[in-house]
Design brief:
By secondary structure, this protein is of the alpha+beta class. Helix content is 55%, strand content 9%. The N terminus is likely disordered. The protein binds protoporphyrin IX containing FE and 2-acetamido-2-deoxy-beta-D-glucopyranose (NAG) (2 copies). Its EC number is 1.14.-.-.
Length: 513
Protein backbone atom coordinates (compact mmCIF):
# COMPACT_ATOMS: atom_id res chain seq x y z
CA UNK A 1 0.00 0.00 0.00
CA UNK A 2 2.60 2.55 1.06
CA UNK A 3 4.89 1.28 -1.66
CA UNK A 4 2.19 1.84 -4.23
CA UNK A 5 1.58 5.32 -2.95
CA UNK A 6 5.26 6.13 -3.03
CA UNK A 7 5.37 4.79 -6.50
CA UNK A 8 2.45 6.90 -7.53
CA UNK A 9 3.95 9.84 -5.71
CA UNK A 10 7.15 9.30 -7.57
CA UNK A 11 5.30 9.16 -10.87
CA UNK A 12 3.48 12.32 -10.01
CA UNK A 13 6.71 14.05 -9.11
CA UNK A 14 8.19 12.91 -12.38
CA UNK A 15 5.27 14.20 -14.41
CA UNK A 16 5.43 17.52 -12.61
CA UNK A 17 9.13 17.67 -13.28
CA UNK A 18 8.57 16.93 -16.94
CA UNK A 19 5.91 19.62 -17.22
CA UNK A 20 8.20 22.11 -15.53
CA UNK A 21 10.96 21.42 -17.99
CA UNK A 22 8.59 21.70 -20.90
CA UNK A 23 7.17 24.89 -19.48
CA UNK A 24 10.63 26.36 -19.06
CA UNK A 25 11.46 25.51 -22.63
CA UNK A 26 8.30 27.10 -23.89
CA UNK A 27 8.91 30.09 -21.72
CA UNK A 28 12.43 30.65 -22.92
CA UNK A 29 11.19 30.25 -26.47
CA UNK A 30 8.53 32.88 -25.93
CA UNK A 31 10.94 35.07 -24.09
CA UNK A 32 13.33 35.07 -27.02
CA UNK A 33 10.48 35.91 -29.36
CA UNK A 34 9.01 38.55 -27.14
CA UNK A 35 12.31 40.26 -26.56
CA UNK A 36 12.76 40.75 -30.26
CA UNK A 37 9.45 42.54 -30.51
CA UNK A 38 9.01 44.30 -27.16
CA UNK A 39 11.56 44.42 -24.42
CA UNK A 40 9.15 43.44 -21.70
CA UNK A 41 10.83 43.11 -18.33
CA UNK A 42 8.44 40.67 -16.74
CA UNK A 43 6.97 37.78 -18.62
CA UNK A 44 3.64 36.01 -18.45
CA UNK A 45 2.79 33.26 -20.83
CA UNK A 46 -0.67 32.63 -19.56
CA UNK A 47 -2.50 35.88 -20.21
CA UNK A 48 -3.59 37.16 -16.84
CA UNK A 49 -6.71 39.24 -17.19
CA UNK A 50 -7.48 41.80 -14.57
CA UNK A 51 -11.08 41.21 -13.52
CA UNK A 52 -13.53 44.00 -14.23
CA UNK A 53 -15.11 45.24 -11.00
CA UNK A 54 -18.80 44.46 -10.98
CA UNK A 55 -21.40 46.65 -9.31
CA UNK A 56 -23.50 44.37 -7.15
CA UNK A 57 -27.22 44.54 -7.67
CA UNK A 58 -30.38 42.61 -6.86
CA UNK A 59 -31.35 39.70 -9.12
CA UNK A 60 -33.59 40.65 -12.06
CA UNK A 61 -33.89 44.35 -11.25
CA UNK A 62 -30.12 44.75 -10.96
CA UNK A 63 -29.27 48.21 -9.74
CA UNK A 64 -32.48 49.80 -10.99
CA UNK A 65 -33.38 51.06 -7.53
CA UNK A 66 -30.01 52.72 -7.08
CA UNK A 67 -30.51 54.50 -10.35
CA UNK A 68 -34.01 55.61 -9.41
CA UNK A 69 -32.70 56.83 -6.06
CA UNK A 70 -30.10 58.86 -7.94
CA UNK A 71 -32.86 60.64 -9.85
CA UNK A 72 -33.48 58.15 -12.66
CA UNK A 73 -32.59 58.39 -16.32
CA UNK A 74 -32.20 62.20 -16.36
CA UNK A 75 -29.20 61.77 -14.08
CA UNK A 76 -27.69 58.67 -15.62
CA UNK A 77 -24.43 60.44 -16.56
CA UNK A 78 -23.97 61.61 -12.96
CA UNK A 79 -24.82 58.21 -11.58
CA UNK A 80 -22.25 56.55 -13.84
CA UNK A 81 -19.75 59.30 -13.00
CA UNK A 82 -20.11 58.46 -9.31
CA UNK A 83 -19.57 54.76 -10.11
CA UNK A 84 -16.34 55.55 -11.93
CA UNK A 85 -15.16 57.45 -8.89
CA UNK A 86 -15.96 54.43 -6.76
CA UNK A 87 -14.70 51.64 -9.07
CA UNK A 88 -12.23 53.31 -11.44
CA UNK A 89 -12.02 53.74 -15.20
CA UNK A 90 -13.72 50.42 -15.99
CA UNK A 91 -16.57 48.61 -14.29
CA UNK A 92 -19.47 46.37 -15.10
CA UNK A 93 -23.08 46.89 -14.13
CA UNK A 94 -26.47 45.45 -14.90
CA UNK A 95 -28.22 48.77 -15.12
CA UNK A 96 -31.93 48.56 -14.60
CA UNK A 97 -31.56 44.80 -14.51
CA UNK A 98 -31.83 44.37 -18.26
CA UNK A 99 -28.65 45.37 -19.95
CA UNK A 100 -25.33 44.18 -18.65
CA UNK A 101 -22.76 46.72 -19.79
CA UNK A 102 -19.12 47.55 -19.26
CA UNK A 103 -18.47 51.25 -18.73
CA UNK A 104 -15.12 52.81 -19.60
CA UNK A 105 -13.91 56.35 -19.03
CA UNK A 106 -10.17 56.59 -19.68
CA UNK A 107 -8.70 57.81 -22.96
CA UNK A 108 -6.64 54.62 -23.34
CA UNK A 109 -9.56 52.26 -22.80
CA UNK A 110 -11.69 54.31 -25.17
CA UNK A 111 -9.06 54.16 -27.87
CA UNK A 112 -8.62 50.46 -27.38
CA UNK A 113 -12.38 49.97 -27.75
CA UNK A 114 -12.60 51.80 -31.06
CA UNK A 115 -9.61 49.85 -32.39
CA UNK A 116 -11.55 46.64 -31.84
CA UNK A 117 -15.01 47.68 -32.99
CA UNK A 118 -14.80 45.47 -36.08
CA UNK A 119 -15.67 45.93 -39.72
CA UNK A 120 -19.32 46.75 -39.12
CA UNK A 121 -19.35 48.55 -35.78
CA UNK A 122 -22.62 47.99 -33.96
CA UNK A 123 -24.08 50.51 -31.57
CA UNK A 124 -27.05 50.18 -29.24
CA UNK A 125 -30.30 51.52 -30.65
CA UNK A 126 -33.04 53.04 -28.53
CA UNK A 127 -35.55 50.26 -27.74
CA UNK A 128 -38.57 52.37 -28.54
CA UNK A 129 -37.27 53.07 -32.04
CA UNK A 130 -36.33 49.54 -33.01
CA UNK A 131 -39.66 48.34 -31.69
CA UNK A 132 -41.45 50.96 -33.76
CA UNK A 133 -39.51 50.07 -36.89
CA UNK A 134 -40.31 46.39 -36.48
CA UNK A 135 -44.00 46.95 -35.76
CA UNK A 136 -44.43 49.22 -38.76
CA UNK A 137 -42.01 47.38 -41.00
CA UNK A 138 -40.20 50.64 -41.39
CA UNK A 139 -36.91 50.94 -43.27
CA UNK A 140 -34.66 53.56 -41.74
CA UNK A 141 -31.51 55.55 -42.45
CA UNK A 142 -27.82 55.20 -41.65
CA UNK A 143 -28.08 55.14 -37.87
CA UNK A 144 -30.32 52.04 -37.97
CA UNK A 145 -28.52 50.13 -40.72
CA UNK A 146 -26.07 47.32 -40.15
CA UNK A 147 -23.63 45.11 -41.99
CA UNK A 148 -22.93 45.48 -45.70
CA UNK A 149 -25.90 47.81 -46.32
CA UNK A 150 -24.59 50.21 -43.71
CA UNK A 151 -21.03 50.13 -45.05
CA UNK A 152 -22.12 50.73 -48.64
CA UNK A 153 -24.17 53.81 -47.81
CA UNK A 154 -21.72 55.02 -45.20
CA UNK A 155 -18.91 55.10 -47.76
CA UNK A 156 -20.99 57.20 -50.12
CA UNK A 157 -21.88 59.64 -47.37
CA UNK A 158 -18.31 59.79 -46.05
CA UNK A 159 -17.23 61.02 -49.44
CA UNK A 160 -20.01 63.61 -49.62
CA UNK A 161 -20.16 64.91 -46.04
CA UNK A 162 -16.77 64.36 -44.42
CA UNK A 163 -13.96 64.18 -46.96
CA UNK A 164 -12.80 66.22 -49.90
CA UNK A 165 -13.86 69.70 -50.85
CA UNK A 166 -16.84 70.70 -48.74
CA UNK A 167 -17.05 74.39 -49.61
CA UNK A 168 -20.39 73.78 -51.32
CA UNK A 169 -22.10 73.15 -48.02
CA UNK A 170 -20.42 76.02 -46.18
CA UNK A 171 -22.34 78.38 -48.46
CA UNK A 172 -25.64 77.01 -47.16
CA UNK A 173 -24.54 76.95 -43.53
CA UNK A 174 -23.30 80.52 -43.80
CA UNK A 175 -26.53 81.73 -45.37
CA UNK A 176 -28.85 80.10 -42.80
CA UNK A 177 -26.68 81.26 -39.90
CA UNK A 178 -26.42 84.81 -41.18
CA UNK A 179 -30.20 85.01 -41.43
CA UNK A 180 -30.64 83.82 -37.84
CA UNK A 181 -28.07 86.21 -36.38
CA UNK A 182 -29.33 89.14 -38.46
CA UNK A 183 -32.84 88.52 -37.15
CA UNK A 184 -31.47 88.72 -33.61
CA UNK A 185 -29.64 91.90 -34.47
CA UNK A 186 -32.83 93.53 -35.79
CA UNK A 187 -34.71 92.53 -32.65
CA UNK A 188 -32.02 94.01 -30.42
CA UNK A 189 -32.15 97.27 -32.35
CA UNK A 190 -35.93 97.39 -32.00
CA UNK A 191 -35.74 96.68 -28.28
CA UNK A 192 -33.05 99.32 -27.86
CA UNK A 193 -35.20 101.87 -29.69
CA UNK A 194 -37.86 101.26 -27.03
CA UNK A 195 -35.25 101.52 -24.30
CA UNK A 196 -35.51 97.79 -23.49
CA UNK A 197 -33.02 95.00 -23.11
CA UNK A 198 -33.33 92.06 -25.43
CA UNK A 199 -33.62 88.55 -24.11
CA UNK A 200 -33.60 85.76 -26.72
CA UNK A 201 -37.08 84.24 -26.76
CA UNK A 202 -37.63 80.53 -27.42
CA UNK A 203 -33.94 79.87 -27.87
CA UNK A 204 -34.39 76.11 -28.00
CA UNK A 205 -37.01 76.21 -30.74
CA UNK A 206 -35.08 78.78 -32.77
CA UNK A 207 -31.91 76.72 -32.75
CA UNK A 208 -33.88 73.62 -33.63
CA UNK A 209 -35.44 75.34 -36.60
CA UNK A 210 -32.03 76.63 -37.69
CA UNK A 211 -30.36 73.20 -37.61
CA UNK A 212 -33.18 71.68 -39.65
CA UNK A 213 -33.02 74.54 -42.14
CA UNK A 214 -29.30 74.01 -42.54
CA UNK A 215 -29.84 70.37 -43.34
CA UNK A 216 -32.61 71.04 -45.85
CA UNK A 217 -30.53 73.58 -47.71
CA UNK A 218 -27.55 71.22 -47.75
CA UNK A 219 -29.87 68.61 -49.17
CA UNK A 220 -31.74 70.68 -51.77
CA UNK A 221 -29.93 74.03 -52.02
CA UNK A 222 -30.80 77.33 -50.36
CA UNK A 223 -33.38 78.23 -52.99
CA UNK A 224 -36.00 75.75 -51.74
CA UNK A 225 -36.17 77.61 -48.42
CA UNK A 226 -37.38 80.68 -50.22
CA UNK A 227 -40.96 79.65 -50.81
CA UNK A 228 -43.65 80.11 -48.20
CA UNK A 229 -45.02 76.61 -48.59
CA UNK A 230 -41.61 75.28 -47.59
CA UNK A 231 -41.38 77.63 -44.63
CA UNK A 232 -44.71 76.33 -43.32
CA UNK A 233 -43.66 72.73 -43.84
CA UNK A 234 -40.41 73.38 -41.98
CA UNK A 235 -42.20 75.06 -39.08
CA UNK A 236 -44.43 72.06 -38.67
CA UNK A 237 -41.59 69.60 -39.15
CA UNK A 238 -39.32 71.18 -36.57
CA UNK A 239 -42.16 71.17 -34.07
CA UNK A 240 -42.94 67.50 -34.47
CA UNK A 241 -39.29 66.40 -34.62
CA UNK A 242 -38.79 68.35 -31.45
CA UNK A 243 -41.63 66.45 -29.80
CA UNK A 244 -40.14 63.10 -30.79
CA UNK A 245 -37.35 63.52 -28.48
CA UNK A 246 -39.57 64.40 -25.56
CA UNK A 247 -41.67 61.32 -26.19
CA UNK A 248 -38.74 58.96 -26.65
CA UNK A 249 -37.02 60.26 -23.54
CA UNK A 250 -40.15 59.44 -21.55
CA UNK A 251 -39.86 55.88 -22.85
CA UNK A 252 -36.22 55.70 -21.83
CA UNK A 253 -36.91 53.98 -18.52
CA UNK A 254 -39.95 52.00 -19.56
CA UNK A 255 -39.93 48.93 -21.81
CA UNK A 256 -41.67 50.04 -25.03
CA UNK A 257 -43.16 46.63 -25.75
CA UNK A 258 -44.88 46.64 -22.38
CA UNK A 259 -46.06 50.20 -22.89
CA UNK A 260 -47.56 49.14 -26.21
CA UNK A 261 -49.22 46.02 -24.76
CA UNK A 262 -50.71 48.05 -21.94
CA UNK A 263 -51.76 50.62 -24.49
CA UNK A 264 -50.12 53.32 -22.39
CA UNK A 265 -50.22 56.94 -23.31
CA UNK A 266 -46.42 57.23 -23.50
CA UNK A 267 -46.33 54.61 -26.24
CA UNK A 268 -49.33 55.93 -28.17
CA UNK A 269 -47.91 59.45 -28.17
CA UNK A 270 -44.54 58.22 -29.30
CA UNK A 271 -45.97 56.00 -31.99
CA UNK A 272 -48.21 58.61 -33.54
CA UNK A 273 -45.50 61.23 -33.28
CA UNK A 274 -42.85 59.13 -35.01
CA UNK A 275 -45.38 58.30 -37.71
CA UNK A 276 -45.91 62.02 -38.26
CA UNK A 277 -42.20 62.76 -38.44
CA UNK A 278 -41.51 60.09 -41.01
CA UNK A 279 -44.50 61.21 -43.05
CA UNK A 280 -43.74 64.92 -42.83
CA UNK A 281 -40.08 64.26 -43.66
CA UNK A 282 -41.10 62.34 -46.76
CA UNK A 283 -43.51 65.08 -47.81
CA UNK A 284 -40.79 67.72 -47.48
CA UNK A 285 -38.75 65.70 -49.93
CA UNK A 286 -41.75 65.46 -52.26
CA UNK A 287 -42.23 69.21 -52.00
CA UNK A 288 -38.59 69.86 -52.85
CA UNK A 289 -38.76 67.54 -55.80
CA UNK A 290 -41.86 69.22 -57.15
CA UNK A 291 -40.34 72.69 -56.62
CA UNK A 292 -37.35 71.60 -58.63
CA UNK A 293 -39.54 70.22 -61.35
CA UNK A 294 -41.37 73.53 -61.58
CA UNK A 295 -38.13 75.46 -61.72
CA UNK A 296 -35.19 73.23 -62.64
CA UNK A 297 -31.99 74.04 -60.75
CA UNK A 298 -29.01 75.36 -62.65
CA UNK A 299 -25.95 73.19 -63.01
CA UNK A 300 -24.22 75.06 -60.23
CA UNK A 301 -27.22 74.66 -57.93
CA UNK A 302 -27.15 70.94 -58.60
CA UNK A 303 -23.51 70.79 -57.66
CA UNK A 304 -24.38 72.44 -54.37
CA UNK A 305 -27.03 69.98 -53.23
CA UNK A 306 -26.59 66.66 -51.48
CA UNK A 307 -29.73 65.33 -53.14
CA UNK A 308 -28.15 65.55 -56.59
CA UNK A 309 -24.87 64.20 -55.33
CA UNK A 310 -26.67 61.14 -53.97
CA UNK A 311 -28.52 60.71 -57.25
CA UNK A 312 -25.24 61.01 -59.11
CA UNK A 313 -23.86 58.26 -56.85
CA UNK A 314 -26.74 56.03 -58.04
CA UNK A 315 -28.48 55.91 -54.66
CA UNK A 316 -32.14 54.93 -55.30
CA UNK A 317 -34.71 57.60 -54.39
CA UNK A 318 -36.34 55.41 -51.72
CA UNK A 319 -32.96 55.15 -50.03
CA UNK A 320 -32.36 58.89 -50.34
CA UNK A 321 -35.62 59.51 -48.48
CA UNK A 322 -34.72 57.10 -45.70
CA UNK A 323 -31.30 58.65 -45.32
CA UNK A 324 -32.56 62.23 -45.38
CA UNK A 325 -35.20 61.80 -42.67
CA UNK A 326 -32.70 60.19 -40.33
CA UNK A 327 -30.08 62.84 -40.99
CA UNK A 328 -32.60 65.45 -39.93
CA UNK A 329 -33.53 63.56 -36.78
CA UNK A 330 -29.86 63.02 -35.89
CA UNK A 331 -28.94 66.62 -36.63
CA UNK A 332 -31.81 68.47 -34.93
CA UNK A 333 -31.34 68.10 -31.20
CA UNK A 334 -27.59 67.37 -31.20
CA UNK A 335 -26.67 70.57 -33.02
CA UNK A 336 -29.34 72.70 -31.35
CA UNK A 337 -28.25 71.69 -27.83
CA UNK A 338 -24.51 71.79 -28.52
CA UNK A 339 -25.06 75.34 -29.74
CA UNK A 340 -27.02 76.17 -26.61
CA UNK A 341 -24.21 74.87 -24.43
CA UNK A 342 -21.59 76.80 -26.36
CA UNK A 343 -23.68 80.00 -26.17
CA UNK A 344 -24.13 79.42 -22.47
CA UNK A 345 -20.40 78.93 -21.86
CA UNK A 346 -19.56 82.02 -23.90
CA UNK A 347 -22.24 84.17 -22.28
CA UNK A 348 -20.66 83.51 -18.87
CA UNK A 349 -17.35 85.03 -19.97
CA UNK A 350 -17.49 88.59 -21.31
CA UNK A 351 -13.71 89.04 -21.71
CA UNK A 352 -13.61 85.87 -23.81
CA UNK A 353 -16.32 87.32 -26.07
CA UNK A 354 -14.12 90.36 -26.71
CA UNK A 355 -11.04 88.25 -27.32
CA UNK A 356 -12.87 86.07 -29.83
CA UNK A 357 -14.26 89.18 -31.56
CA UNK A 358 -10.75 90.63 -31.88
CA UNK A 359 -9.41 87.31 -33.08
CA UNK A 360 -12.08 87.12 -35.78
CA UNK A 361 -11.39 90.66 -36.91
CA UNK A 362 -7.84 89.48 -37.48
CA UNK A 363 -9.13 86.49 -39.48
CA UNK A 364 -7.93 83.99 -36.86
CA UNK A 365 -9.99 81.28 -35.19
CA UNK A 366 -7.88 79.45 -32.60
CA UNK A 367 -9.78 80.72 -29.57
CA UNK A 368 -13.14 80.13 -31.22
CA UNK A 369 -12.05 76.59 -32.05
CA UNK A 370 -10.95 76.11 -28.43
CA UNK A 371 -14.24 77.44 -27.07
CA UNK A 372 -16.21 74.91 -29.11
CA UNK A 373 -13.93 72.06 -28.04
CA UNK A 374 -14.46 73.11 -24.42
CA UNK A 375 -18.26 73.28 -24.74
CA UNK A 376 -18.37 69.80 -26.32
CA UNK A 377 -15.93 68.44 -23.73
CA UNK A 378 -17.90 69.64 -20.72
CA UNK A 379 -21.36 69.12 -22.22
CA UNK A 380 -21.27 66.17 -24.62
CA UNK A 381 -24.83 65.94 -25.96
CA UNK A 382 -24.40 62.20 -26.47
CA UNK A 383 -22.80 61.27 -23.13
CA UNK A 384 -22.71 57.52 -23.76
CA UNK A 385 -21.38 55.93 -26.93
CA UNK A 386 -21.73 52.17 -27.14
CA UNK A 387 -20.27 49.31 -29.12
CA UNK A 388 -21.13 45.61 -29.09
CA UNK A 389 -17.85 43.73 -29.23
CA UNK A 390 -17.66 41.66 -32.43
CA UNK A 391 -15.44 38.99 -30.80
CA UNK A 392 -13.85 37.97 -27.52
CA UNK A 393 -11.27 40.58 -26.87
CA UNK A 394 -9.24 42.38 -24.26
CA UNK A 395 -9.46 46.01 -23.36
CA UNK A 396 -6.63 47.39 -21.29
CA UNK A 397 -5.79 43.96 -19.88
CA UNK A 398 -9.42 43.12 -19.10
CA UNK A 399 -11.13 40.24 -20.82
CA UNK A 400 -14.36 41.18 -22.59
CA UNK A 401 -16.45 38.46 -24.20
CA UNK A 402 -18.11 38.64 -27.62
CA UNK A 403 -21.38 40.63 -27.84
CA UNK A 404 -20.72 42.54 -24.63
CA UNK A 405 -22.01 46.09 -24.72
CA UNK A 406 -19.21 48.49 -23.85
CA UNK A 407 -20.29 52.05 -23.10
CA UNK A 408 -17.99 55.03 -23.13
CA UNK A 409 -18.72 57.54 -20.38
CA UNK A 410 -17.92 60.77 -22.20
CA UNK A 411 -19.22 63.01 -19.44
CA UNK A 412 -16.75 61.45 -17.01
CA UNK A 413 -13.79 61.28 -19.39
CA UNK A 414 -14.19 64.93 -20.40
CA UNK A 415 -14.03 65.99 -16.77
CA UNK A 416 -11.22 63.72 -15.67
CA UNK A 417 -8.20 65.58 -14.20
CA UNK A 418 -5.99 62.81 -15.59
CA UNK A 419 -7.02 63.99 -19.08
CA UNK A 420 -7.33 67.74 -18.57
CA UNK A 421 -5.70 70.19 -16.20
CA UNK A 422 -8.36 71.98 -14.11
CA UNK A 423 -11.03 70.05 -15.95
CA UNK A 424 -14.06 72.02 -14.79
CA UNK A 425 -12.68 75.31 -16.08
CA UNK A 426 -13.50 76.57 -19.56
CA UNK A 427 -10.05 77.27 -21.00
CA UNK A 428 -10.16 77.62 -24.79
CA UNK A 429 -6.42 78.32 -24.70
CA UNK A 430 -5.74 74.73 -23.74
CA UNK A 431 -6.43 73.71 -27.35
CA UNK A 432 -3.97 76.15 -28.88
CA UNK A 433 -0.98 74.28 -30.19
CA UNK A 434 2.02 74.50 -27.94
CA UNK A 435 -0.10 74.76 -24.79
CA UNK A 436 -0.44 71.03 -24.44
CA UNK A 437 0.40 71.03 -20.73
CA UNK A 438 -3.28 71.77 -20.12
CA UNK A 439 -4.36 68.77 -22.17
CA UNK A 440 -2.86 65.50 -20.97
CA UNK A 441 -4.98 63.27 -23.22
CA UNK A 442 -6.79 64.92 -26.09
CA UNK A 443 -8.71 61.67 -26.63
CA UNK A 444 -10.43 62.26 -23.29
CA UNK A 445 -13.01 64.21 -25.28
CA UNK A 446 -14.61 62.45 -28.25
CA UNK A 447 -17.99 64.15 -28.66
CA UNK A 448 -18.48 62.73 -32.17
CA UNK A 449 -16.87 59.34 -31.42
CA UNK A 450 -14.05 58.13 -33.68
CA UNK A 451 -13.69 55.25 -36.09
CA UNK A 452 -15.87 53.99 -38.90
CA UNK A 453 -19.18 54.63 -37.16
CA UNK A 454 -18.42 58.09 -35.81
CA UNK A 455 -20.74 60.99 -36.51
CA UNK A 456 -21.34 61.55 -40.21
CA UNK A 457 -22.48 65.11 -39.48
CA UNK A 458 -19.34 66.17 -37.60
CA UNK A 459 -18.16 68.55 -40.30
CA UNK A 460 -21.62 70.08 -40.73
CA UNK A 461 -22.12 70.53 -37.00
CA UNK A 462 -18.68 72.03 -36.34
CA UNK A 463 -19.07 74.49 -39.19
CA UNK A 464 -22.47 75.52 -37.84
CA UNK A 465 -21.11 76.02 -34.34
CA UNK A 466 -18.16 78.04 -35.62
CA UNK A 467 -20.32 80.33 -37.70
CA UNK A 468 -22.95 80.88 -35.01
CA UNK A 469 -20.57 81.47 -32.11
CA UNK A 470 -18.18 83.55 -34.18
CA UNK A 471 -20.91 85.86 -35.44
CA UNK A 472 -22.43 86.19 -31.98
CA UNK A 473 -19.09 87.11 -30.41
CA UNK A 474 -18.46 89.75 -33.07
CA UNK A 475 -21.90 91.31 -33.17
CA UNK A 476 -23.20 91.03 -29.62
CA UNK A 477 -22.34 91.25 -26.01
CA UNK A 478 -24.01 88.27 -24.34
CA UNK A 479 -24.98 87.78 -20.75
CA UNK A 480 -26.51 84.79 -19.01
CA UNK A 481 -29.49 85.86 -16.88
CA UNK A 482 -30.14 82.56 -15.09
CA UNK A 483 -30.01 83.05 -11.37
CA UNK A 484 -29.70 79.41 -10.35
CA UNK A 485 -26.63 77.44 -11.41
CA UNK A 486 -27.21 75.72 -14.75
CA UNK A 487 -26.57 72.01 -14.81
CA UNK A 488 -27.07 69.31 -17.42
CA UNK A 489 -29.66 66.54 -17.39
CA UNK A 490 -30.21 63.74 -19.86
CA UNK A 491 -33.31 63.84 -22.03
CA UNK A 492 -32.08 61.63 -24.90
CA UNK A 493 -29.33 64.24 -25.20
CA UNK A 494 -27.88 66.35 -22.41
CA UNK A 495 -29.87 69.55 -21.99
CA UNK A 496 -29.82 72.42 -19.47
CA UNK A 497 -31.90 71.72 -16.34
CA UNK A 498 -33.71 75.06 -16.83
CA UNK A 499 -34.56 77.36 -19.71
CA UNK A 500 -31.46 79.29 -20.72
CA UNK A 501 -31.94 83.03 -20.54
CA UNK A 502 -29.53 85.00 -22.67
CA UNK A 503 -29.54 88.79 -22.90
CA UNK A 504 -28.00 90.37 -25.98
CA UNK A 505 -26.80 93.89 -26.57
CA UNK A 506 -25.07 95.25 -29.63
CA UNK A 507 -21.33 95.30 -29.71
CA UNK A 508 -19.56 98.13 -31.49
CA UNK A 509 -17.44 96.81 -34.34
CA UNK A 510 -13.98 95.81 -33.16
CA UNK A 511 -10.82 96.57 -35.00
CA UNK A 512 -8.22 93.89 -35.63
CA UNK A 513 -5.48 93.49 -33.05
C1 LIG B 1 -22.72 68.72 -32.21
C2 LIG B 1 -23.52 67.96 -32.91
C3 LIG B 1 -23.42 66.46 -32.99
C4 LIG B 1 -22.90 65.57 -32.09
C5 LIG B 1 -22.24 65.86 -30.74
C6 LIG B 1 -23.07 64.25 -32.67
C7 LIG B 1 -22.63 63.07 -32.08
C8 LIG B 1 -22.70 61.83 -32.69
C9 LIG B 1 -22.13 60.63 -32.16
C10 LIG B 1 -21.35 60.54 -30.85
C11 LIG B 1 -22.39 59.63 -33.03
C12 LIG B 1 -21.93 58.19 -32.94
C13 LIG B 1 -22.99 57.34 -32.35
C14 LIG B 1 -22.51 55.92 -32.24
O1 LIG B 1 -21.44 55.60 -32.69
O2 LIG B 1 -23.22 55.13 -31.68
C15 LIG B 1 -23.18 60.18 -34.11
C16 LIG B 1 -23.67 59.45 -35.18
C17 LIG B 1 -24.40 59.99 -36.20
N1 LIG B 1 -24.64 61.33 -36.42
FE1 LIG B 1 -24.10 62.86 -35.20
N2 LIG B 1 -23.70 64.37 -33.88
C18 LIG B 1 -23.91 65.69 -34.12
C19 LIG B 1 -24.49 66.26 -35.25
C20 LIG B 1 -24.94 65.55 -36.35
C21 LIG B 1 -25.45 66.14 -37.57
C22 LIG B 1 -25.51 67.64 -37.87
C23 LIG B 1 -25.83 65.11 -38.37
C24 LIG B 1 -26.40 65.16 -39.77
C25 LIG B 1 -25.89 65.89 -40.73
C26 LIG B 1 -25.55 63.87 -37.67
C27 LIG B 1 -25.82 62.61 -38.15
C28 LIG B 1 -25.40 61.44 -37.57
C29 LIG B 1 -25.66 60.12 -38.12
C30 LIG B 1 -26.48 59.79 -39.37
C31 LIG B 1 -25.04 59.21 -37.27
C32 LIG B 1 -25.00 57.69 -37.43
C33 LIG B 1 -23.77 57.30 -38.22
C34 LIG B 1 -23.67 55.81 -38.48
O3 LIG B 1 -24.35 55.03 -37.81
O4 LIG B 1 -22.88 55.44 -39.34
N3 LIG B 1 -25.00 64.18 -36.44
N4 LIG B 1 -23.34 61.54 -33.88
C1 LIG C 1 -35.04 84.46 -52.13
O1 LIG C 1 -35.98 85.46 -52.45
C2 LIG C 1 -35.52 86.80 -52.31
C3 LIG C 1 -36.63 87.75 -52.62
O2 LIG C 1 -37.85 87.15 -52.62
C4 LIG C 1 -34.30 87.03 -53.19
O3 LIG C 1 -33.78 88.32 -52.99
C5 LIG C 1 -33.24 85.99 -52.90
O4 LIG C 1 -32.17 86.14 -53.80
C6 LIG C 1 -33.80 84.60 -53.01
N1 LIG C 1 -32.78 83.64 -52.59
C7 LIG C 1 -32.48 82.57 -53.29
C8 LIG C 1 -31.41 81.69 -52.72
O5 LIG C 1 -33.01 82.31 -54.33
C1 LIG D 1 -30.08 72.93 -11.79
O1 LIG D 1 -28.96 72.32 -11.19
C2 LIG D 1 -28.26 73.14 -10.25
C3 LIG D 1 -27.01 72.41 -9.82
O2 LIG D 1 -27.28 71.12 -9.43
C4 LIG D 1 -29.20 73.46 -9.09
O3 LIG D 1 -28.53 74.29 -8.14
C5 LIG D 1 -30.43 74.14 -9.62
O4 LIG D 1 -31.35 74.38 -8.57
C6 LIG D 1 -31.09 73.30 -10.69
N1 LIG D 1 -32.20 74.05 -11.27
C7 LIG D 1 -33.37 73.49 -11.56
C8 LIG D 1 -34.40 74.40 -12.10
O5 LIG D 1 -33.59 72.31 -11.41
Amino acid sequence: MTKQMLCRGGLLRWVVQLLRTLLLRIMSHFKAELQTSYSSPSLQIVPKYVPIPRVKGLPIVGTLFDLIAAGGAPHLHKYVDARHRQYGAIFREKLGGTQDAVFVSSANLMRSLFLQEGQYPQHPLPDAWTFYNKRHDCQRGLFFMEGAEWLHNRRILNRLLLNGNLNWMDVHIESCTRQLVDRWQTSIEQAAANGEHYELPDLERQLYRWSIEVLCSIMFGSRVLNCSEMQCALDEFSQIVHKVFEHSSRLMNFPPRLAQLLHLRIWRDFESNVGEVLQQGASIIELCISLQRAQPPSEQEQEEALYHKLQAAAVPSEMIKRIFVDLVIAAGDTTAFSSQWALYVLSCDQPLQRRIARERAAAESQLLHGLIKEALRLYPVAPFIGRYMPQDTQIGGHYVEKDTLVLISLYTSGRDPAHFEQPLKVLPERWILGQTEQVHQSHGTLPFAIGQRSCIGRRVALKQLHMLLGKCASQFSMQCLNEQPVDCILRMVTVPNQTLRLALTLQPKVAAL
